[in-house]
Automatic annotation (TrEMBL):
This is NUDIX domain-containing protein. Belongs to the Nudix hydrolase family. It comes from the Bacteria. Pfam families: NUDIX (PF00293). Residues 51-182 form the Nudix hydrolase domain.
Length: 187
């Protein structure tokens, strides 16, 4: 178990309300679920034995916040922000999210990423043993003109205007994106 990553995630969760204020009901439930998942032995940063795992993702935006970079996920068959499970050598949630964004898109972040969202969402049977993700997300800016790379985990990737998202999105994604955008614009 990566003690440094575990400490980083626990610290983020402990300071969540101070950073972002009183969470709405959905985010409050995600915070409670994440704290419980990390209190298990071993903590739910590992893929097994638990059916719920902490993941890290990156909402990648153009510098004007008008476009977002999404990947068409192979297992989920939907468009979503790049992300995935932390690895043993990830020192922080931000580091894990940036690594996932680079691996899945080739995007290089501009500026300093900030953790802006926590979401607990169920997964379909296509994800195998994993039944849900407790996803910590960062907001990052990237150049929409930079070269991109489609990974084996996605069918495609593309920039979309935030007002014209594709039809195939996970449940609750549009509301989550709106929360992330509002927090990112306020930074």
């Amino acid at each position: 178990m990566n003690a440094q990553l575990l400490h980083d995630v626990e610290t983020l969760l402990a300071g969540w309300e101070k950073r972002w204020g009183t969470p709405d009901a959905r985010e409050a439930a995600a915070l409670a679920d994440a704290r419980a998942a990390l209190a298990q032995e071993p903590p739910a940063l590992l893929r097994h034995p638990w059916r719920t795992h902490v993941t890290c993702s990156a909402f990648v935006f153009s510098s004007d916040l008008r476009s977002t970079l999404l990947v068409h996920h192979v297992k989920g068959d939907f468009w979503v922000q790049p992300g995935g499970h932390p690895e043993d050598d990830d020192a922080s949630a931000i580091g894990a999210a940036l690594r996932e964004a680079r691996e899945e898109t080739g995007a290089s972040p501009l500026g300093t990423p900030v953790v802006v969202d926590l979401d607990h969402h169920a997964l379909s049977g296509a994800f195998g043993h994993c039944a849900s993700h407790l996803d910590l997300s960062v907001a990052v800016l990237a150049d929409p003109e930079a070269a991109l790379l489609v990974s084996a985990e996605s069918h495609d990737l593309a920039w979309f205007p935030v007002e014209e998202l594709p039809a195939k999105l996970p449940s609750g994604f549009a509301a989550r994106l709106a929360r992330v955008l509002a927090r990112t614009a306020a930074l």
